[in-house]
Write a structure and sequence with these properties.
single chain, 8-stranded mixed sheet, 12 helices, elongated
Length: about 325
């Protein structure tokens, strides 16, 4: 990819990010503007109002307290901070808080994954969060980067899940390995990896049942799927990607708690941010669970899945030029 194409793509991604976060930006910044109206400096009253603004924007109580404490330290250290400087401080402090060890800030693209074994992504999450759509978008992005991709329909609990994945496979132009409804999910995962290795595929993305019927049952099912995968690809899965619906606010926190307890989630995808004012949930979930948000969904088109960069996200959220 040439420099012109690279910068053109980055410009388009920024426009998509700014547009996708519009409702959240309006909600969060309007509340913050109201909190500091008529104030010449950031004092205790402003900080109290900011705390309320963040909590009501679904950032979460614990993360909000961290942000306020950081602002208090900056105000105390800098002696005088005018409200006009607040945007810059918020960008600096929130970005620094999210750019924690373990998050992959270097990822700039969906790279080519060439190796002896395929790169395996196991996708988890409840029904309705955009899990299948995210899988389809991931398949598109990885294929566009030059990878051979195979999908596995291991959500055998719902016939609709298999059909939906089939539709995405056709749209993207990648094969889908499936069995009939009610089949053993682990058997589907085994067949998917076996087929992918035979094809010389580079990336495998496997869907799983979106049930939270009970934590023990979910844990046992996902553990079985992972163990069977290792018979084919010893270090699989390389990613366990939890998909969360950003528009559900605090419900997304609870889903994250249950899935993190049930399996070794190491990356997050937060979807539907373009249709909600609750995008602050990205900040809270990233901070509270110490698991990097890797992808964000900002629209329905296949191109509208982006790799998450905390600095760019926070700058866009608070309306500061990047």
């Amino acid at each position: 990819m040439g420099f012109k194409d690279f910068f053109s793509r980055k410009k388009k991604e920024k426009e998509t990010l700014d547009s996708g976060l519009k409702k959240t930006k309006e909600g969060v910044w309007d509340k913050i503007t109201h909190a500091i109206a008529g104030k010449s400096k950031v004092d205790d009253e402003v900080l109290d109002n900011l705390e309320e603004a963040f909590i009501t924007s679904d950032v979460g109580t614990d993360t909000t307290i961290k942000i306020i404490e950081r602002l208090q330290e900056r105000v105390a250290r800098d002696k005088y901070v005018g409200s006009s400087e607040l945007r810059r401080l918020l960008v600096e402090e929130v970005s620094d808080m999210l750019a924690k060890p373990g998050s992959d800030e270097s990822l700039g693209d969906f790279e080519v994954r060439k190796g002896d074994d395929p790169y395996v992504i196991l996708v988890v999450g409840v029904n309705g969060v955009g899990k299948t759509t995210t899988i389809g978008k991931l398949a598109y992005k990885y294929k566009e980067a030059g990878n051979e991709v195979v999908l596995g329909a291991a959500d055998t609990f719902r016939a609709a899940a298999i059909e939906q994945l089939d539709i995405w496979g056709e749209r993207v132009g990648v094969p889908v390995v499936k069995q009939k409804m009610g089949s053993d999910p682990a058997a589907v995962a085994f067949d998917t990896l076996t087929s992918a290795k035979a094809r010389g595929a580079d990336v495998v993305i496997i869907d799983t049942a979106g049930r939270l019927h009970n934590k023990v049952g979910l844990m046992n099912e996902l553990t079985k799927v992972k163990n069977v995968m290792k018979r084919v690809v010893p270090d699989a899965p390389h990613e366990i990607l939890l998909v969360l619906d950003g528009s559900t606010g605090q419900n997304a926190f609870e889903q994250a708690r249950q899935f993190v307890a049930a399996t070794d989630v190491n990356n997050l995808a937060i979807t539907k941010l373009d249709g909600t004012s609750k995008g602050g949930v990205v900040i809270g979930i990233s901070d509270q669970f110490k698991i990097p948000v890797k992808y964000i969904g900002l629209g329905e088109k296949m191109e509208d899945l982006q790799i998450f960069h905390s600095d760019e996200f926070v700058r866009s959220l608070f309306g500061e030029a990047i």
